[in-house]
Amino acid sequence: MSVKLNHDSYIKLKPSKKFEPTNPETCITSLDFDDSGQYLISSLTSESINLYDAYRGTYNKPIYSKKYGCHLARFTHQQKNCVYASTKEDNTIRYLSLNDNSYIRYFKGHKALVNSLEVSPRQNIFASASLDDTFKIWDLRTSTAQFSLPSKHSSFVSFDPTGDVVAIASQSRGIIDLKPIEMLHQLPCASFEVPQGFNFNKVEFSNDNRYILVCSTNQNHLLLDSFDGNLVCELGPIISIPGRSFPDTGNATFSPCGNFVFSGNGDGKIAVWDLTKKSEINDSLPKFLTPKFTLTGDVKPRMLSFNPKYLQLITADSQLTMWTPELD
């Protein structure tokens, strides 16, 4: 059954499955879907990776990494294979087969904790940024970094939908550099400014490549034009999510169609902005867009991720919630 991606289908999203942690002190720190949209993985503070069958709405199994810790688990394009960052020992990125829990390869080179890791949407490469103030590009077929660049400050990385461009966003510099994958050694093809002092932990391109979302940790989110870097608007108001502080991969994300942004809010709701309603952006500075509607059903939606193949939203903190539309 096909469902149109629009306001009418998004507003019908309701929690369909909830998975409670075995330990209430455990917190989820990252979410990712595979290319098919069938499988979902999360990394946890309990030093484990959880595998779900998102299509069937079932929990498969935990994969433990007690010796090395784990964060930023990301699927590769080979089904049930993933890379993840170690949080203990040697800051190595590990390439793991979830089929038999065996390691395929180790990617060594970072001297401090890896705080951002993304797999290219089209190629068998991935980008990483570390608190050692370096940015690296890796090929899954070899353990040696293909490219390394001093980033001067810790950064966050993201690929555009084509996989041809990687964004390197520095919070302390207030700069997002766009670099073509084929010309990494050259100067950025574009550099966009972010307000100084703006705290963020995620940069994401919309699937149609029109926008860049800069996901705030305690302020309004920023929506930039991906071609000229101009501020389209601020998305707010955002209420800071109270409680424990753990690493995460951002509390806002684009809808698959690129016309909506979903964000967790400290009031226990999910705020949803309709980007097609540009006429509703106020003319004063800063430009500002208010949520079109809200969703309820998760008391603390600290992280969000959309399934790339199905109309399914995931929210997570200590519990993981799967959302699907309540159809007529």
UniProtKB/TrEMBL annotation:
The keyword Repeat applies. Keywords: Nucleus, Repeat, WD repeat. It comes from the Eukaryota. SUPFAM superfamilies: WD40 repeat-like. One of its GO terms (molecular function) is chromatin binding. WD repeats lie at residues 107-148, 254-283. It is found in: Nucleus. GO terms for cellular component: Set1C/COMPASS complex. One of its GO terms (biological process) is RNA metabolic process. It holds the Pfam family WD40. Its main location: nucleus. Belongs to the WD repeat SWD2 family. This is WD repeat-containing protein.
